[in-house]
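Issue 218. Parser rejects a valid record. Input:
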Amino acid sequence: MHAYRTHTCGELRKRDVGSHVRLSGWVNRRRDHGGLLFIDLRDHYGITQCVIEPDAAAFAEADKARSEWVLTLTGKVMARSDDTINSDMPTGEVELRIKEAVVQSVAQELPIPVFGDLDYPEDTRLKYRFLDLRRERLHENVALRSKVISSIRRRMIEQGFTEFQTPILTASSPEGARDFLVPSRLHPGKFYALPQAPQQFKQLIMVAGFDRYFQIAPCFRDEDARADRSPGEFYQLDLEMSFVTQDDVFAAVEPVLHGVFEEFAEGRSVSPAPFPRIAYDEAMLKYGVDKPDLRNPIVIADVTDVFARADVAFKAFKEKTVRAIPAPGAAAQPRSWFDKMDGWARSDMGAPGLGYIVFEEEAVNTPDSIPAAIANAMETHGVAKKSELKHLRFLRGKGPIAKFLTEEAIQELARLANVKAGDALFFSADAKKNRAALLAGAARTRLGRELGLIPEGQFKFCWIVDFPMYEWNEDEKKIEFSHNPFSMPQYDREKFLALDAKDRDAILGMKAYQYDIVCNGIELSSGAIRNHDPDVMLKAFEIAGYAREETERKFAGMLNAFRYGAPPHGGTAPGIDRIVMLIAGVENLREVTMFPMNQQAQDLMMNAPSEASLKQLRELHIRVVLPETK
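Output the parser choked on:
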């Protein structure tokens, strides 16, 4: 018999009754029922109930065991009686009658219990992550991560992709976040950078003639933590393809993502391919964000023209972009609920407020009693002629803004926003269109949650396409890249090369072959058809304020390669951590990551970052200058 186990703790079934077996694992739970001692033994694969009588030879040894001690137990598999079967456990029809017990390891008093699912402070969980990982929920999440990666890898290979690894020590690149720098011992004063993404390398792989590349790539960014973004490092499904259009990339990625989500959906629905494609401008108008949650049925409307009309007296919205956010069924909410929404807009979003109208239905009996404005609006929009109207039901508006609006304007707002009696309509207004969209998008998300409009059990994907190539930085008064600097602009090549400073409107109106894939409001990846033309690339960076000499220096490897024949190519890089987070149904990446850092980018278990020794600093020709303390 094997020294430690003949079976795992999740393996025994009724078919094994009568067998002599050996199990090894941790004491998940110990129960002393007077005449019998029960030990639930746990390993990676599951739990088996083990039992021993007080007069058994091994009882004294088994009785020593406490939570998380490591034991090896040998004995006979017995069938449980009908009234003691545990249908919640795969091994619940059998138990091990202990004949031998060996203590392999003793556990001190636990800082966090492993049995149970109570929540504990994050710092405690991270400091004792090895204990936290023994807990059932987190253990299953991390095991799920491995299965998801294996599924992705298999699907990519089936699609004809080849896996390659790219360097970890490389040069700094403007990917949009701070680099982690690594000092060079052999080259004093110079530094490597850990890759924010394998962007340049995967493009060079295409130039080298490898047609379809992928890897599960580690990426490093010195940025602040969020629930959906780990500080320090993360992993992505990095891929690149040659001789492809944007549609070709979509056609390759969709089966992989749909397939892996469907494989682990456990009854949840997954968007069928092809996924919806939404232009960036449309997304910002309808959803107020470039990563919309399509489970939320609320669609934002542009009502700027209504408030610009001469017969509308609400001055606060004049000469502003105004977005209307429907709130289905919200008319039944108390006044305090509307005040709470307004307070949220002021405190959390820094907005002047969030105006609203509540819509009620009113009936009139004869055409003559219909308000003239209502009848005119009906006739203008082809609903019906006044002479044909009998028992009409129309909408009345109530609320702080309604008194400033004509009947015709109220009906027009209802029509544009597609609201009905019993609904409410909130308004976001700002002199700057992007700020009006931002508040409207946040209000849409909040209303979807507050009103219970977002269904569970769905994965809704979409592509956001046609991102702006450039944007205006108001603080620095300059043009800069909007998304990915390595993207191909959607612009005639010769006209692009001829652009100069006076063509600001054309530059800011330009779109790029850039795209994001989004699931349930979570951005999984950004991608693009790449700019493989050296002249266009130099011009693109020049427009964003980079001197040609600087671009040549920063991207010498890629530009030089492009000058020796580069294929048209493109790709994307869905985040592994976010994919697993969605599939596992958790809201924080730390619940699907083996050894994450805390919010301050510290590894509490390994005490990193830590101070370097003087010897190490001397070898690297580095002196530490700490910030002054006040």
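Fixed in the parser; the record now loads. The first helix runs from residue 59 to 63.
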